[in-house]
Amino acid sequence: MAHKTGPDPRPKAGFLLGLKPLPSLAQRGEPTLEGGEPVVIRGGLRRGAGQAPEHLFDVPPARDWRLPDRAVEKGVVLGVQAANRLVQDRELALPGHVLDNSAVSASRPPSMDSLLARPEAAEPLGLYGREAVKEELRAAIAGGATEAAELFTAARESLSRRFAPTLVRAVNATGVLLHTNLGRAPLSEGAREAVTRIAAGYSTLEYEPGEGRRGRRQDHVRRAARELFGAEDAIAVNNNASAVFLALSAIARGRAVVVSRGELVAIGGSFKIPEILEASGASLAEVGTTNRTTAADYRRALSPAVAAILTVHPSNYEIRGYAASAEPAEIASLAREAGVPWIHDQGTGAVVSLDEFGVPGEPTVADCVAAGADLVTFSGDKLFSGPQAGFAVGRASLVTRLAEHPVARVVRPDKLTLAALGATLAAWKTGRWREFPVYRSAAAPLELLEQRGERISRALREIPGAGISIELIASQALFGGGTSPEKKFPSRALAVSREGSSADELARRLRAGAPPVVGRVEGGKVLLDLRSILPEEDVVVERALKEAGGSAGA
């Protein structure tokens, strides 16, 4: 093909883009192009053998002088181009391309494209996606790594930490069966199956298939809750604090609520009765004293400005000594006389007496309803042994007011919570509550706990140089989680120590495992209480102790 005459627009030899002129190969005493074997470079470029630092191509006039777009980048020197192929100076690097016949310079990492094209990139790309892998590779390069193997090792470790779930299964070895920080009650098998079934697809959350119309989500638990607790009606929300807040918002907004000074409690990190009252729009009318509040104290506080009486079950504290409180029957009578509802925050969700577990005097929800409380609120994940949820049960007219209040939508439970609640209610109604993990643990005989403890101890003693000292001792467990304060019952625990380590350090090593084993430190040892450890977790505890005993004294 003939070329047009006129000024030649092509770059002159040694023309540098963004840098400075580079002497031609001949001027530098380099071998001629004909003397070297071209090697194919990815992207259709070719080069000879040798190392390559910073520059690219010095292109004198030639018939095929065009370069691929990717070859021209900031700080790139154009190299030598032969008639039918492009040849890179052997001292020049080619950003963005992998050379088939040489390793990357130890002082210069491979390009990102070349890294992502390597076989070892396939797994992290599939697990974490292209952008995340690129971010971690760049971080590894910034940290000084240059070799591909080193880069991928660093990136994989960082990606694994970055995307590891933080909500994981844990072993509760504290002896507190309803440990709030560890998720309170484990779900029953039936509840777990119900959640899995509903989570797998669509559901009739708010749909009535028989009539082909919109349904109400509360209907999935409403009837069963009414029957179980002996109440006229019931509504489920997402926790007990929500139930209290909803009740106060719907019943007492803009008016006063009478509360004993001995029941202005704080539960957990931020649940404080005075603050909940304030947030609901109600005002607080305090009566009595911290240790004594009588029926007469309530009567003196009642006035047309009062919208309700609120009592709070002392679920996480006790007042002993010179103390007194009004009887439930007295409060119910006062509320009826004044024409205001009595709202009782029962809290624990107890369905049956705990006397057989060595915890006497815990009132049930049904007891509170029968005693005359107009509305009773409680948690779903404590002694009720279901998912995190809250209930308000009692007079139908009051429950209707709660259901129709705008806050009810804000605090409504989702389909998975309702699925678990429905299964838990059914288990209570059919007498299968003893199969719940919490009650199975509470009822375990001491002899069985001792057998489990001896089995774990024996397995550790049979390992030479395990570095772990273990002893089976008497212990005390409790329900906890804001229920039955200070009411403990007998248990057995493994008292563990490690040569060369403090009890705190050993506890930290156990918590660092997968899954974490969470015990308590007493008397310079780590105590692993067998009553709160599920039987199927014994093998996990044994493995954790073996791992924690490794490298004793290190």
Estimate the mean pLDDT confidence.
Answer: 84
SSE-based structural type: alpha/beta
User: What number of domains?
Assistant: 4
CATH superfamily of the largest domain: Type I PLP-dependent aspartate aminotransferase-like (Major domain)
CATH fold topology of the largest domain: Aspartate Aminotransferase, domain 2
Helical content, roughly?
A: 25-40%
Q: Gap between N and C termini, in Å?
A: 79 Å
| Number of extended strands | 22
Taking pLDDT < 50 over at least 5 consecutive residues as the criterion, the unreliable ranges are 11-22, 32-105
Give, in spatial order, the strands making up the sheet with the most strands: 7-17-16-15-13-8-11
Q: Main beta sheet, described?
A: 7 strands, mixed
- How large a portion of the residues is in β-strands, by DSSP E? 15-25%
CATH class of the largest domain: Alpha Beta
Overall outline: globular
The CATH architecture assignment of the largest domain turns out to be 3-Layer(aba) Sandwich
Question: Helix count, per DSSP?
Answer: 18
The whole-angstrom Rg is 36 Å
Can you walk through the features of this model?
The strands form seven sheets. The protein has a seven-stranded mixed sheet, with helices on both faces. Strands 18-19-22-21 form a four-stranded antiparallel sheet. It is an alpha/beta fold. The protein is globular, with a radius of gyration of 36 Å. It has helices spanning 112-116, 122-128, 130-142, 148-163, 189-199, 222-229, 240-252, 273-280, 295-301, 328-338, 365-370, 396-404, 406-410, 415-429, 437-443, 446-461, 503-511, 538-548; strands at residues 39-41, 45-47, 87-88, 171-172, 207-208, 213-214, 233-237, 256-260, 266-267, 271-272, 283-287, 292-293, 306-312, 324-325, 342-347, 375-379, 390-394, 468-478, 488-498, 517-518, 520-522, 525-529. Residues 11-22 and 32-105 have low confidence and may be disordered. Helix 3 crosses helix 4 and helix 7 crosses helix 8 (273-280). It has four domains: 1-102, no CATH class; 112-163; 210-433, 3-Layer(aba) Sandwich (Aspartate Aminotransferase, domain 2); 442-548, Aspartate Aminotransferase, domain 1 (Alpha-Beta Complex), CATH 3.90.1150.180.
